[in-house]
Design brief:
There is one protein chain. With 269 residues, the chain is an alpha/beta fold. It folds into 2 domains: 162 residues, Rossmann fold (3-Layer(aba) Sandwich), CATH 3.40.50.150; 63 residues, no CATH class. The protein is 26% helix and 16% strand. The protein is built from 9 helices and 11 strands. The strands form 3 sheets. Strands 7-2-1-8-9-11-10 form a 7-stranded mixed beta sheet, sandwiched between helices. Strand 1, helix 1 and strand 2 form a beta-alpha-beta unit. The longest helix has 14 residues. The chain is globular and about 50 Å long. The relative contact order is 0.14. The mean pLDDT is 88.
């Protein structure tokens, strides 16, 4: 029997932590705070209670109004182009994300504008699977999990979340940080250029002094901040760039897995 897909808010999202989930089973049942939530794959997979903080207004809307998404039995490439310019295109975000090239979640004031997996409008598709998708089963499974978890959603910056808000999530919360990676091209730092990395790393140190903390970043950024890289994975990029490497660091003992961690691809010694 195939392994079930990780629960997550959107099925295909560049930067999703879903590819780490099979290595983070030790977090099952923990109270989790994701300060750069995105698809919230870790919380959706494991959390008992969750606080999800998301700066992007559309992603925050999707996370808080997840039961209002529209996922038809079959969603076609024609549907993709018909709905991506809707004033409330976010309601189709589950389907649009699944069909978007390279998992991009990109939009403007005119709507969702990521290229379709098969290329631009009117171009022949690269695969029949890209022309029509059946997504209801996966969405319903994620919807059931979202209802069970009933996460607290905050539309805002990680920097605005206080220690008291984190502690209120429940006993022994695990704080997960997945910022825009310095030195890479992301919507956060390419468009605005305003992410304050000095302030971010100062906040990481504060959090690690009080809570269990896990960070994702590039290996170079983690080591430059004085922390140890405990594991890596290949990170897919767009077609014009080579694959990168994403790293994880468990900043506190309470955040680390136990047992045969080498089998999970972690080096904790």
């Amino acid at each position: 029997m195939p392994t079930p897909k990780p629960a997550r808010l959107l099925p295909s999202y560049n930067g999703s932590k879903s590819r780490w989930v099979h290595r983070l089973e030790h977090l099952r049942g923990r109270n989790i705070v994701e300060l750069f939530a995105g698809t919230a794959a870790v919380s959706m997979s494991f959390a008992d209670r969750a606080l999800l903080v998301e700066l992007d207004p559309q992603v925050a809307t999707i996370a808080s109004r997840y039961d209002e998404l529209i996922v038809p039995e079959v969603f076609t490439r024609d549907d993709y182009y018909a709905h991506r310019g809707d004033p409330e295109w976010w309601r189709y975000a589950y389907c649009l994300s699944a069909m978007a090239f390279s998992g991009l979640f990109r939009y403007s004031e005119k709507g969702f504008n990521a290229t379709h997996k098969g290329g631009g409008e009117g171009k022949p598709g690269t695969s029949p699977a890209h022309e029509a998708m059946r997504l209801q089963e996966d969405y319903q499974r994620s919807l059931a999990r979202w209802r069970e978890l009933a996460p607290t959603i905050v539309h805002g910056s990680y920097a605005d979340i206080t220690d008291e808000q984190i502690a209120a999530v429940g006993e022994r919360p695990v704080v997960i940080l997945d910022p825009p990676y310095e030195g890479t091209i992301t919507p956060y730092n390419q468009k605005n250029g305003q992410f304050d990395y000095d302030a971010y790393w100062a906040r990481v140190r504060e959090l690690a002094a009080r809570f269990d903390v896990i960070i994702f970043d590039t290996a170079a950024n983690i080591e430059r901040a004085g922390y140890t890289v405990h594991g890596t994975r290949t990170m897919l990029m767009n077609a014009a760039r080579r694959p990168g490497t994403e790293a994880i660091s468990f900043l506190t003992d309470g955040a680390k897995p136990t047992g045969d961690t080498a089998a999970l691809g972690f080096t904790l010694s």
